[in-house]
Amino acid sequence: MTEFTSTQILLAARPTGWPTEENFETRTVTYTELPAGQVRVRNEFLSVDPYMRGRMSDARSYVAPYEIGEQITGGAVGRVVESNAETLPVGALVLHQHGWSDTVQAPAETFRQVPDRQDLPSSLNLHMLGMTGMTAYVGLKEVAGLQEGETVFISGAAGAVGSAAGQIAKLMGAKRVVGSAGSDEKVELLTSKYGYDAAFNYKNGPAIELLAEVAPEGIDVFFDNVGGEQLEAALESFNNGGRAALCGAISSYNSTDTAKGPGNMSHLITRGLKLQGFTLGSYLQHADAFYADMGRWFSEGKIAYDETIVDGLENTVDAFIQMMRGANTGKMLVRL
Question: What is the spatial distance between Cα 21 and Cα 34, in angstroms, rounded to a whole number?
Answer without folding.
Answer: 33
